[in-house]
Amino acid sequence: MNKIITIANQKGGVGKTTTAVNLAASLAATKRKVLLIDLDPQGNASTAAGISNKNPLTLYNHYFNNNEINECIYQTSDLYSVIPGGEELIALEVAIRNDNKQGFLQESLKSLSGVYDYTLIDTPPTLNQLTIEGLVCASGTLIPLQCEYYSLEGVTGLMNTIKILSEKNLASNRVLGIIRTMVDMRNNLAKEVSGELEKHFSNLVFNTLIPRNVKLAEAPSHGVSGIKYMPNSYGAKAYLALAGELIRRVENG
Ligand SMILES: Nc1ncnc2c1ncn2[C@@H]1O[C@H](COP(=O)(O)OP(=O)(O)OP(=O)(O)O)[C@@H](O)[C@H]1O
Ligand SMILES: [Mg+2]
Fold it and tell me: pLDDT 10s digit of each residue in the chain, 253 long?
């Protein structure tokens, strides 16, 4: 089994990367083999994964320089593997569009199909070709969102894109779930929006709430996940619980 899951939301700063890194670490902690792909030119997931190489091989090298995808895979101290991202992915985005190579990532990942249990893909805060590459190769999408007034803006667009890709048989992706991130239940608006989400997306919203927790924000500067940095923190425990919920959703049908 290699379950490919893309983490997406066009809105910036909603916790995509934090979710990608901490879910990767949590799934790896359950002895599952995990690959994290950083599809964001910001390269935040690569930093958070502790990639020390200043110029690691990325999907750019795989596309332009014929490097094997295996050469772009690095190990992390959190026991998952990562294909780093970085600025050069901007050029990759343009090339995939100009060369009409949509599905490039899907094709590339075929050679890894027996290797991992889970492949998680972190995407940039836009619906560009890199995000589309992630959506096309995934069988499921996770949507992190903050419980704020404008939090649903963009999510409908994302869900429509996933639907259109499926209808055109360009993907067999479906929304696996919505994750409420940076939750502070002392905030009345957060409570209200959280309740609305439960009402409107009852089958999609994960029960686990990810609290606002400073340990999750500190961990990336140490190049590790929150799970490794402070395993007893509320943030780490929440992501471990979320991984449990995800496993039940994915592996029990
Ligand atoms: N649960 C949390 N508690 C505290 N801080 C958090 C939490 N989740 C994320 N953050 C912080 O919020 C900021 C945005 O989070 P993150 O980078 O994960 O969002 P993103 O959606 O990947 O952003 P972008 O759209 O720029 O890629 C970061 O500084 C991160 O450390
Ligand atoms: Mg990010």
Answer: 789 999 999 999 999 999 999 999 999 999 999 999 999 999 999 999 999 888 999 999 999 999 999 999 999 999 999 999 999 999 999 999 999 999 999 999 999 999 999 999 999 999 999 999 999 999 999 999 999 888 888 788 899 999 999 998 888 999 999 999 999 988 999 999 999 999 999 999 999 999 999 999 999 999 999 999 999 999 999 999 999 999 999 998 6
Distance set, CA 200 to CA 137, 141, 197, 227, 247 (Å): 27, 18, 5, 31, 23
Task: Classify residue 23 as exposed, middle or buried by CB count within 10 Å of its CB (0-12, 13-18, 19+).
Answer: buried
User: Is CATH 3.40.50.300 the right assignment for the domain spanning 3-251?
Assistant: yes
| Residue found under tokens 């799934």 | 27
Kindly tell me the sign of the dihedral angle through the C-alpha atoms of 211, 9, 4, 224.
negative
Pocket test of ligand 1: the residue of 11, 14, 17 to mutate, having most ligand atoms within 8 Å of its CB, is 17
Q: Is the pTM for the entire model greater than 0.90?
A: yes
19 Cβ partners below 8 Å, 6+ apart?
A: 7, 142, 144, 179, 181, 210, 239, 242
Which of 18, 38, 148, 153 for mutating ligand 1's site (highest number of atoms within 8 Å of CB)?
18
Can you tell me the distance from the alpha carbon of 65 to that of 92, in angstroms, rounded to the nearest whole number?
Answer: 12
